[in-house]
Amino acid sequence: MSAVTLQATPRWIDAVLEQVRVTGLSLRRDALVVVAAVLGVGTFLVVGEILTGGPGFDSDETIPTALFSFFYPFLVWRNDKRFGPAFLWTLPVDRRRLALAKVLAGFVWLMVGVAFLATWLLALALLADVSPGRMVTRIPFIATIGAYLLGSAVVLGLRHAVRWTLGTIGFLFLMGLVGDVVNRPNDGEWKYVPGAEAFFSMVLQFMTPWLSVPESAQWAMTTFLWFGAGLAALWAALSRHGERRRH
Amino acid sequence: MLELHGVSHIYPNGTRALDSVTLSIPRGMYGLLGPNGAGKSTLMRTVATLQTPTEGTVRFTSASSAQAIDVVREPERLRRTLGYLPQDFGVYPRVSAYDMLDHMAVLKGVASPADRRSTVETLLHQVNLWSVRRKMLSGFSGGMRQRFGIAQALIGNPELIIVDEPTAGLDPEERNRFLNLLAEIGESVVVILSTHIVEDVSDLCHRMAVMADGRVQLEGSPQQLMQSTRGRIWMKVIERGELARYREQYEILSTRLFAGRTVVHILSDRDPGNGFTSVDAGLQDVYFSTLAQSRRAA
Fold this sequence. Notes:
The structure holds 2 protein chains of 2 kinds. Chain A is mainly α. Chain A has helices spanning 12-52, 65-76, 95-128, 132-136, 141-157, 161-182, 196-211, 215-239.
């Protein structure tokens, strides 16, 4: 085989661009399914709303992109082992940087999806003669990005991410059921979790001064908390895959 | 050359997966034989820098550099010259072979697009996957996937190649094709073939080691090891119903059915009589006798 010129290690930007490319290729089919669902089913439903004069399209309801973006990293990482004898970690790239490159790659395609969604909403808004700006603001951009960071942290940081996620969802669902079974009005399911009420009243005490500040400040604080929490969790998750040496 | 000295690995649950493994592995094909749970994969992962050993040193001296790489302290240096084909090599199923190899080439430091194109095309021809280069990896058979795995392991002309259980699950034709490919590449670099299939080692390897219970039980060239058991392997054809009785009387290494009867091989330093005939030891006999001895010692 002919000799090639090797970098000492691959440049990180090359790793990022390459991860963007291959992540796009591996998600291609899933993306087509989602696009078909959104274009087909979504447009059908919305046009139906418009034609029948229903309020559904022209509402302030938030589109659940944050929920999707929390689970989206499971798709991005499904073909890569992260723990144990993970082939990815035998490559001559710093492990945390390689993982971060893949997180960035997933983020790029998430933003492409969000841009597609925004464009579709704009087009429908023009069709329905409603305010385009109002339609686009139904997409919670900050929460979508924050949820993606948290989801990536879960996938990268937990060895059994699926079990933990399903277990948490199951727990929350169970608490809801408990609340419904006992059927006390306005009690809330958390009443039955030891310590939860005390925790939530402490949080409310802490949050009350902040809720009285102007909306822009609230927005800034929310953005900071979402990004801060997401980035902190992601950094902690990436640190699990840092190089371990014995000196 | 790869040198391991006193390498031990103890998992958090207390399992001692490797126990003072010391090996010197020169250029060429080196076979690592052992049953499931012997510590082969743990050793391969340690050499492949996927885990740090609890004790011991691992050094690799490449042909291109006189300075040895301390694999435990500087794993990233070894990775620049490492090709690794693990037991379960995950691929992106909806990516073509060409795109996936190109992707791996970037991550292995082949920066120039022209170099990458040359590398990928050469490798696809070498592993006989050129005609299916645009096919999705999800459509590959087991043998094709293993050949693809070897192709990615060869990117960047590595000087140390680790192949972990590569022929498990392959049909005879695919296995043969794969082993021929390995034989081609195994002349000028260090190739470690970890397997529990004796024939893979006997067909390909100049030197080998047998592992059991996390320790190296035996080490040398296949010919030397077979020579060392000369005169100690005895064979007899018996009725199937007699097997239980013979197990009580002799140390049976292996049994196989032949024309409705059972051929037994036993280990004995002296002529056991009773119709047994001396046979030349095959590598399988060496392997089984080593395992039997290690079980006795345990």
